[in-house]
């Protein structure tokens, strides 16, 4: 078994005429939280889709849990939460999670998944009556219920209030402590503080694989936004 849940070797993706991901090399260690960070449009979703195996025109090598991305054997081992909530609004919260549980033969885990994102009290509510943050948690529970080894979350905290955001990160940490690998994208640099490792992207290219502490130490900036700007400026100057 390799130590890395994901290995990206010289990964490039062309979308139309645009090079959305350009020669990215990076790894995601098992049992950790890795942040995929960078400005809007820098290629985060495209790279995540390459890991899931749903992206066309991927060049290079994407290895996931020791197998080529997209392998049939990976389907039940990866949970993917897209930016848009994947929820049936006419079903209750419990029915939504049960539906996804049936796909992975894991109906025994429904209560655990509801508890993991603090939805037990809302289990009987129809999804159409939920707030945006609650819907996001239903999506996360749907991805969790099959107990995936790897959980990929595309901007899970966008639009959430600070309390909910902190609460979700705490839950992500609990999952990582229990052995799940998490790859989490965000365009908010402050979220780097919740991650064990970071993959920084800009315009499809890798800026650095680093940590929040390293970003601060390297730039002398406390603000991670400022640190990111300094790193890309330095990189631009040395390119
Ligand atoms: N279907 C598509 N066809 C052509 N180009 C696309 C398509 N989808 C995205 N792109 C382009 O690919 C690039 C990367 O997009 P991507 O969605 O991966 O970025 P992102 O970092 O996830 O952005 P955001 O943070 O706004 O979600 C962008 O320049 C985008 O315009």
What does it look like?
Residues 6-228 form the ABC transporter domain. InterPro entries: AAA+_ATPase, ABC_transporter-like_ATP-bd, ABC_transporter-like_CS, P-loop_NTPase. This is ABC transporter ATP-binding protein. GO terms for molecular function: ATP binding. There is one protein chain. The chain is α/β, with parallel strands linked by helices and 239 residues long. It has a domain at 85-148. The protein has seven helices and ten strands. The chain has helices at 44-52, 93-103, 110-116, 132-144, 162-177, 212-219, 224-238, and strands spanning 4-15, 18-29, 33-37, 58-64, 67-68, 78-81, 150-153, 181-186, 197-202, 205-210. It has a six-stranded mixed sheet with strand order 6-7-8-3-9-10, with helices on both faces. The chain has a four-stranded antiparallel sheet with strand order 2-1-4-5, covered by helices on one side. Helix 2 crosses helix 3, helix 2 runs parallel beside helix 4 (132-144) and helix 6 packs across helix 7. The radius of gyration is 18 Å and the shape is globular. The structure holds adenosine-5'-triphosphate (ATP). Adenosine-5'-triphosphate is lined by residues 15-16, 18, 20, 40-46, 187.
What is the first-to-last residue Cα distance?
37 Å
Shape: globular
Oligomer: single chain
Bound compounds:
adenosine-5'-triphosphate
Structural class: alpha/beta
The parts where pLDDT drops under 50 for at least 5 residues are: none
What summary fits the major beta sheet?
A: 6 strands, mixed
Question: How is the largest sheet built, in terms of strand order?
Answer: 6-7-8-3-9-10
Strand content: 25-35%
Q: How confident overall, as mean pLDDT?
A: 93
